[in-house]
Amino acid sequence: MFEYYKELKSEHEITFDMNNIDSVDDSTFKAWFAYNKEEFKKICTYAEKSNSVHVGVLLCKLRTALSNQQISFLFGVCETTVGNYIKIAIEDLIDHLVPKFINSDNRTELINHVTPMSKALFDIPIDKTCLIFDATYRLVKKSKNYSGQKQSWSEQKKCHLFVLGPFDATHNDATILKDCFQRYPSEMSIIHENDVILVDRGFRDVIQFLTEHKGVKVHCPGLGQLNTLDANLSRFVTKCRWIVEQVFARLKMKFKIFAIPAHNSTLIHDYQALLIAFALLNLFHQPILSDRINEDVAVLMKSRLHIPNQLQSIVEKFNLSKVRAAFLQIEYVTLDNVENNQQLCFPHLTLEDLYSISLGPYQIQNAISYYAEHQNEGIFLVSKFQPDARHRTAAIRYTDFNITIQDPILIKAYMKSRYRGGKHHHIFVLFDKALTGRNSIKEYFCTCESGARTVGCCSHIMTIIWYLGYGQYHEISTPNPGICDVSITIPKEKPQPIQTEN
Ligand SMILES: [Zn+2]
């Protein structure tokens, strides 16, 4: 085999000559090695025992997830040599790169990474920091003794990563975090009293330990049907925890090897490679900021924390979720809704208007996915509140609920839950026909778990507002349009009709 490569090398040019990288243009180089040539040279300065060929082979492996056999062809060496090069580069970078760029024990650096968003939302003093904890799985293939590896890692708003673990997949997030305080006392000592910790519901069993034994302030999204204040506080947490998904998306996009299950035989190297990848992300990547105009949004969110959801009070008092008689049904279809629009008079909105309602991009992106789901059914059901004078709901006076509105129009819509098939949420939007743009959207409420929030809105509400005020007037490219045609859908039995009152 080696003779073959020797021959190949002498007869043809090998694809990648790491000692002569100037022969490759920068974008091709980046496509194969995840970084441009300047960045590559910088990475090599941390290699003390390995050379640019070793580092190049490792980066190519992480970037492309090709087999060692395939990589051997590109570098003109045999397969065993590829394995050795990767091992040499990993050992070297673990010793000389990783300690410099992850799990830093420099608290000042950690404090400097706190963003204006988390500072404003959680009132973080200048000598305190804000940390987000999360755990993720690494799937392993080809193992008779199947067990997912679970790595715990925490990271700070501006993508300053800590990586701890890995732990057995059988442990939950709370158990892992509690164990980290005992197992890694030196790493965890960077956390001081009154620091702010943002966790998700998976950590709820460790919250008491954190607050009582570690003296930190923990924020976690609430469970179940939330009142407006809890729904708003939950939004504060998700607004900052959004970064977690971003970091994983970055990792998998940059290094394809982490987007596929790990090989059982090379698990130890796989974990070390993950540390190197995270160190590189910390070294080169720009901070992920949670908002384009984050300080304004943070101030706006803070100012709305205690705003009650008046429309919820109206809906509950008059039982509008169940009342059908007072509403005029308007069926939206994929094409031609001119007549419906004339009947509904919903305002035209811009993307900026939508953003100032959702206070973040997530709900707007979700709206497009929800729309795609509904579009397949060819229908979008909206109804307009138009009670007969004799109906008891005709007694609704918005001023009784502290809502100032000139020309009110209340609409109700149905949406399917994304997670629980068949369960419907009721969405209510109250707008002022006398006004235009963002100002016309007065109140909104949804019967889902976080639908009462007044800091931003849930994705269901955004879908309705997005579609009626923006989506239907713009070319909408739905994500993966062909995906529903790939597999056969067996129709479900019709769900029981929703209980209604006339
Ligand atoms: Zn909702």
Automatic annotation (TrEMBL):
Residue ranges constituting the SWIM-type domain according to the UniProt record: 431-469
UniProt xrefs under PROSITE patterns: ZF_SWIM (PS50966)
Cofactor(s) demanded: a divalent metal cation
GO molecular function: zinc ion binding
Zinc-finger keyword on record: yes
Membrane-crossing segments per the record: none
Pfam family of the protein (one): HTH_Tnp_4
Record key words, sorted: Metal-binding, Zinc, Zinc-finger
Protein's name according to its UniProt entry: SWIM-type domain-containing protein
Species the sequence originates in: Trachymyrmex cornetzi
